[in-house]
Amino acid sequence: MKRAVKALIAAYFAVFMCIFGGINAFAWDVDTSHLDIDFGEVPEGTAFADILVKGNWEENNMDFNVYNGSVLRVDSSCELAKYNKDGYTSLFLKHKSITLEQVDMSPESKNKHMEFAVEVGTEKLFNHYRYIKIAYCDKDGNILGTTNEVKVKKVTWGDPYYKIEANGSSLTCDVNQGPAYFMIVLVPVMFIALALIIIAVVITARLSKKLRLKKSIKRIQSGELDNEQKE
Asked: Is there a contact between 130 and 151 (Cβ–Cβ < 8 Å)?
């Protein structure tokens, strides 16, 4: 009995550590504070790219994002800053949710990409901008071409990680929401509750065994006393 209980407890904790460790590893592997775009083929002369967004998020609008403009070395008079077609506008130059950190669009690069920091509290920015495109631009902010339109999946829980890939006119945006809420909170709680139940069962079994042992001793002692009295 004792060996079986110990084996059960050991198996329980092994499963718990595997699941909890897997959840933690997954959570640490995803950086939701940054947004990356990977590129394949781009139009000749492309110096940088931008995400064109369509949606209504008034508190996130700007007349012109001066910081991103200075990094790209363009001003509010460039074609990208003025772009407003079918409700699409420049995410980098007309909104304040992300900050440009890195651009590598050189023709000889085998890893063309752009990287942005996402402001705290705006991690779910594409819940507001459900439709996006990519605009390829030259160094002066003139638009050389755009990709097809894609609809971004809405995120209901967790901090999303957006994986955006553009290749010529093709665009994809996959959304990873990370571990579900119940995996992070409810599963550990259930494991803890199960541990408490196992401990309670073990304690109850031991107390019951001790009680039975005491009763057996009393019966034996009572029998001895009866025999002495008869003698």
From this structure: yes
52 forms beta bridges with 90, 133
Could you please report the per-residue DSSP string of the chain? -HHHHHHHHHHHHHHHHHHHHHHHHHHHH--TTEEEEEESS--TT--EEEEEEE---GGGB-S--HHHHHHHT--TTSHHHH--BTTBEEHHHHB-SEEEEEEE--TT-SS-EEEEEEPTT-TTGGGT--EEEEEEE-TTS-EEEE---EEPPPP-SS--EEEEEEETTEEEEEEE--S-HIIIIIHHHHHHHHHHHHHHHHHHHHHHHHHHHHHHHHHHHHHHHHHHHH-
pTM over 0.70: no
Instruction: Yes or no: say if 36 and 79 are a contact pair by the CB < 8 Å rule.
Output: no
CB 26 within 8 A of CB 179: yes
Q: Which of 161, 164, 200 is nearest to 177 (CA)?
A: 161
Q: Is the pLDDT of residue 144 over 90?
A: yes
CA gap 124, 161 in Å, rounded:
9
Residue 90: pLDDT above 50? yes
Rounded CA gap, 147 and 161, in Å? Answer: 21
**Considering the chain, what percentage of its residues have pLDDT values greater than 70?**
71
**Residue 17: what residue type?**
M
Count Cβ atoms within 10 A of the Cβ of residue 9 and give its class: 0-12 exposed, 13-18 middle, 19 or more buried: middle
Answer whether residue 108 shows pLDDT above 90: no
